[in-house]
Amino acid sequence: MWRYGVSILKPYHYVHCKSYPANSKSNLTKTPVIKSSNSWTLMTTITESDVGILCFISHLPGFRGILKQRYSDFIVNEVDTEGNVVHLTSLDAPPEAVQEVETKIPDQLNKCYASEIIKFRSLAGDTDADRLEAFINQITSGSEEDICPIVLSPDSDKSHRTAMHNFFKENLRFLVTDTVDGPDSSSKCIRVRLNSGNNNKGRNSKKRKERGDKPYDSRGSSHWPEHLGKFLRFHLYKENKDTQEALGLIGKLLGIQPRSFGFAGTKDKRSVSTQRVTVFKQHASRLAALNERLIGIKVGDFCYVEDDLLLGQLLGNWFTVILRGIVADSEETIKASAESLGRHGFINYFGLQRFGSGSIPTHRIGATLLRGEWQAAASTILDPREGERDFVSKAREYYKETGDIEGTLRQLPRHLVAERAMLQGLKKCPGNYLQALKAIPRTLRMMYVHSYQSYLWNHAASMRVEKYGSNEVVLGDLVYCKGNDAEKVKVVPTEHEDNNFEDAYDYSQLDEISGTDLPEGKNNLVKAITAVDISTGNYTIEDVVLPMPGSRIIYPVNDIANVYHDMAKKDGISLTESVHNTKEFSITSMTGSYRHVFQKPIDFEWELLSYSDGTIALSETDLDKIAKTKPVNLVKEEKPTNGTEGQDPSDHMEHIESFEDDKKFSTDNVEVEGSREAEPPQIHSLPESNSLGTQKALKLAFTLPASCYATMAVRELLKTSTSVAFHKALNQ
């Protein structure tokens, strides 16, 4: 038995599947885990069993291992649609792109604009013409002062504003315009600024102070070189940041809106990841220059393409995972578990991150939306919640007590996108909670409903494993048709099928972390297994799928179908009819999809490692490889996650779970007494030194299709919870 510090830890032994809570509601448990800047806070969070994650495939015992002790212990590389693993290999801009930018001095800035001003005067009047003339003189003078945008006189005539926009496009292409709100609700104003696509030698590089609430239109310049694709594609490398956060920082430095970027899917925050990103009409040299300023983010491998990336345009992700502090009966225990994972795979659950990182589970908000309870849903999103930083809690409390939208917006941090969007919606339409909910970006607001679909799917998958096992197909299982079956089967529409495809949910909005499988095409029809299928052996357990509820899916022709309807009914939701007319929050207006119940890791490899210093990386990142050949500015030193001082509790305490003994569960004549989730072992305090003696780590490498969760593969291996709280407890 391997030793860990000064204590000896026994390996875990787990049951095959926990008892299925057929008629019990999901529970929220309170655990004292978050220490805020002032006091300890009870944080209410969900556990794996709350969201239907109940079973394992193998009967093998688990063992101890710490997931994501360091964020560099979890490396994610996107796999593109051609099957290529995306790596960061170069930080340099292509020579032709550098030359293009460096030699592009706007010729228009070196000419006289008297004739253009005369034309503009006849179109806009003397006041705006004088204002524009002064603005152009400031630009052409070479002044080192900030060049702030100008706002022209209010104009309620849309056709006249269009003529004004066209004037700038045709005559003053080094300037760009957009429309902002005027002094009253019936008027608009045209705002004029220097085109960020021009190389103005830094005169406009300082932070502009008069942008107002609306970001500028980021759609590039009208004089983009014809020989270049409209989109710059690059590889984004990030450490311990989520995709939106990284792109937000890059966009801020470039002075462009987040909507200018396209990507195939978001990646885990607590990881080192590399993925493809596109941006509209930006030169590679501008982005490459940011590498000297960015911390924890690098960009490179630039090329120009004609099309932007859309969510879902990937095959999957390649994972490199380090599990530290391994303790087991023997290496044979680890070997048997690893080989079982490679041979049989894992239950393809939606992981805990699918259901939110805060104290309010996203699937509960989704259920409220499906019931059409708009005000209740809005309150759930906006109301105070446990476990947040003090200044966020104070902002929520302030709004609940005063209803002061402007004052609340000044207090709420910008990363609370849903809350800020809703408040802006309520500001425009007071009391209209549905419109406020629709103000949330579409991908984000649809995550609530998809989370509820995932909640039902997880419970159905657990019932399928508990009732029928994980070895064979059974009567009524659903599978994608093979061979001649595809010609015989008919698509079975639901009773309330909506033939208006434009109103059905657009699956291109999803990413692989959102967890919903993309439709697999009209030729991949689904059928229920018959006695003939079982006798011929045409289908195996790997073919079994379960539906994500929607209007164009069928349910298994066995007891598993009841799980969907019974659990939805318990939440006051019908899967066959809607109680409201808002289609985007109605399951009957979504097409639905299918997801394989079991998933094998692809190209699975594993290796046992020894280490004595917990601060030393055990895997090589893309940036490490580049640094071997060319010095780069590395990110700041990473610290283990055994403390929360100075950190946002939500960073590392995303899924806190209860370890109280509250039930017994048994299977295969083995009774195990314990908690709903795996109880953390008792570990004595560790020495402050980084050297803890020789320890074992397990290195895993594998590919998973888009929408599959690597944490669920790790769960099958260790037979422990994947919650952040559990693995943080192991690291104390």
Automatic annotation (TrEMBL):
GO terms for biological process: pseudouridine synthesis. Residues 180-222, 659-690 are annotated as: Disordered. Keywords: Isomerase. GO terms for cellular component: nucleus. Residues 345-600 form the TRUD domain. GO terms for molecular function: pseudouridine synthase activity; RNA binding. PROSITE patterns: TRUD (PS50984). The keyword Isomerase applies. Belongs to the pseudouridine synthase TruD family. PANTHER family: PSEUDOURIDYLATE SYNTHASE PUS7L (PTHR13326:SF21), TRNA PSEUDOURIDINE SYNTHASE D (PTHR13326). This is Multisubstrate pseudouridine synthase 7 isoform X2. The lineage of its organism: Eukaryota, Viridiplantae, Streptophyta, Embryophyta, Tracheophyta. The gene is LOC110415188.
